[in-house]
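I am still getting used to backbone structure tokens and would like to learn alongside you. Please make up or recall a protein chain and show it to me in full. Would you write everything just below, so we can both look at the same thing?
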Amino acid sequence: MPPNRSHTPGQGENDSESTPPPEQDHPAIDIVEVKLARRSGRGIRRLVTLCGTPTQLVAEYDRRLLESEPDGDGGNDGNSGDDDGDVDGDEHLTAENKEEIKRRRNREYQSYLKLIKLIPSLKERIADPREELRIIYYAQLVDGANNARSDDLSRVKSGVASLLNNRTNGAPNPPLDLDTRDGRGLQNDVTGRLLCPVIYDWDDPITRAKLRDGLDEHDAFDDYWIRCLYEGEKGDPEDVERGFLRGNLLIKTFQMIFTSPSSARGNLDAEETSEAQGRRRKAPSKRPSVAAQLRMNGQVTARAIAYAAVQLHFSLNDATHWMSDYNSFNYEEFYEFIIDFFEEDQTPEGKAAADELFNWWNQYVSGFSPTCVSTVCGHSRRLVQISEAVVTRTPATTAQSTPPKFLATDTNVE
């Protein structure tokens, strides 16, 4: 097994990427508005990007905006500015490097459009000529985004452990600790099985030992067709797409994050004992769900599913705190892999398969209407509509004549 990445014990779910500027150093900024900005940012990791920042996404929008203006002042919204001539003409880059740069740019632009949909007033905020305030604004958005991710890590860590501990068959012995991820990972028979890619036979003792030791090219962290994401927690090595992203634990993880912890124990709870279910019955919460606060409108999205998959996989590992790369498993690449599973194949067959999977999700996720289905075609139309709605502006680095009021919130998110 590859050695663990170094980490500092005792940090819990603290997110090392969260580095907001000290509030006391900016007396001109209304402290209430700063807090509202953090709330607005809480949906970014859940619906927009796992690790990216608003600064990166706006920079890609600005690049397209500039390249779409032949004379430098052409009043275009950036929608057609996807010319990658600077990449194609670079003789120092391999064809593979060029394709990867183009894919990264497209991902960042799509994420920018998602960000604008999540926080509509951002279009005005990023046009604020006061660079210092823009920096503070972006920092508060990132702080809110990372805080929400940390909250979800904590919730899923205990929630997944509770679900596994209460299984009638195959429960971990000793039970998993709800408060830490110690004792999880490949060395644990239960979590190890769930982390095992379907191409390997976990029940074979020799294979299992090789996976744990990382021997003979047996790398459990170099494959994204992972058992915990499959229906019945089993997959077909000869047909890896069959049952993929239909796993019970994945559905429940999504519910823990977006609907409520109680809904995660709802319609897919046959594996729990009746005694365990009885202990868990509580009065329903009157607080709006995260999905409602984020205005998801009954639509399960590819990025929300990918985010839930990241949270589930991380909860099965033994990391002490969030890292985007742990034991050589890159969570950002994993996240993008799942998004591509829905969106990359634009053939009629690929779109139909994605439609069918979204339909399946909407039927099983509590709090989402099966009639409000997010299809690949609908997803593409929404991106076009959003990009067309982006108002014409100069790049964020250019001053505007009338600065907008700083930091009014669009969302008030848990």
Summary: Confidence is low (pLDDT under 50) at residues 1-12, 16-24, 267-280, 369-412. Strands lie at 325-326, 329-330. The two ends are 37 Å apart (CA to CA). Residues 131-165 form the longest helix (35 residues).
